[in-house]
Amino acid sequence: MSKIFAVAALFLSGAALAAAPAVAETPAYGPQLEGFAYPYAVQRFDFESQGEKLSMAYMDVAPAGPGNGRTAVVLHGKNFCAASWEQTIAALSQAGYRVIAPDQIGFCASTKPAHYQYSFQQLATNTHALLAQLGVQKPALIAHSTGGMLATRYALMYPEEVSGLVLVNPIGLEDWKAKGVPYRTVDQWFQRELKLSAENVRAYEQATYYVGRWNPAYEKWVDMLAGLNKGPGHEIVAWNSALIYDMIFTQPVYYEFRDLKVPTTLMIGTADTTAIGGDIAPPDVKKRLGHYDVLGKEAAAMIPNGRLIEFPGLGHAPQMEEPDRFHAELLKALAR
Question: Which of 8, 42, 242, 299 is a good FRET partner for 36, with 20 to 30 A between their CA atoms?
Fold first, then answer.
């Protein structure tokens, strides 16, 4: 009988494997994300900075119907691109907003320079130059993750040129270095980024961003990130990523939230646990990091007239997890 059961088990396991959907191989995209489809036409802002000729990719999306005369600028995070705002761009456009969605230098469809001193001030200056060329005045900035650090710096540099700030699960609500996270050199970041794969991106995002949940719709964004790293620009993509991580870790905006002079709304998925360097932090340090249920409240209290909208139980990207609910709250925040 044992042999019969063994043969049956082997047959059933083989049948299950045969019935399981094949995992598609990660595509390989060009160093400026060539081959990945953006939801709207991509345009280019060519300029020179630090002796480098650079090209910033961006989408400029008109209102879908009658315009309301306002412009929203959406700023992506470290593991995201302008394309990741696809659903939010559509919601804003339907509500009458013109939407500008840039890819920052070093990211996605924009130039990856061999030599560049990254700072949030530099990225803000680049973005300001783009908006000046497009004739955009006093936009609302909607920023996610690392984009929240950039948007904060932008609003500190150009307070009279921003109508409002919406920060969606921004990182930088704490100073990881001051809390005891060890420093990684750029070379160490580079070696880490060279090993990036769809498997480790998916595992990290599921655990950290989505509270253990996973939606097949997220695979598109895993492929976007892993495919960029896998392509012919593998080393230059990893090198720029390493420089950007160093910028994020060493240039906190946390201490300047109290200096913001523009209306600011924090939109926080409270179950988020994102913390730069948490993977190498000692256990006693790691347990103190990434508590967005607390960090959101603390940041809102620091920001003059700051508002807080919480999404209990959601993770790092509430605009992707529950887009309808998120966009309803976003439009109300912008109206205020």
Answer: 242
Say whether pLDDT at 274 is over 80: yes
In three state form, how does the secondary structure of 242-254 look?
Answer: HHHHHHHHHCCCH
- Residue partners of 237: CB distance under 8 A and separation at least 6: 31, 112, 193, 228, 229, 231
Protein fold of 37-335: Rossmann fold (3.40.50)
pLDDT tens track for 28-65: 999 999 999 999 999 999 999 999 999 999 999 999 99
Give the contacts of 49 (CB within 8 A, at least 6 positions apart): 105, 116, 122, 125, 126
Q: Each residue of 140-150: pLDDT tens digit?
A: 999 999 999 99
For residues 30 and 182, give the distance between their C-alpha atoms in angstroms, rounded to a whole number: 33
Q: Is the pTM of this model over 0.85?
A: yes
Where do the domains of the chain lie?
Answer: 37-335
- What are the CA-CA distances from residue 4 to residues 9, 92, 174 (Å)? 9, 62, 60
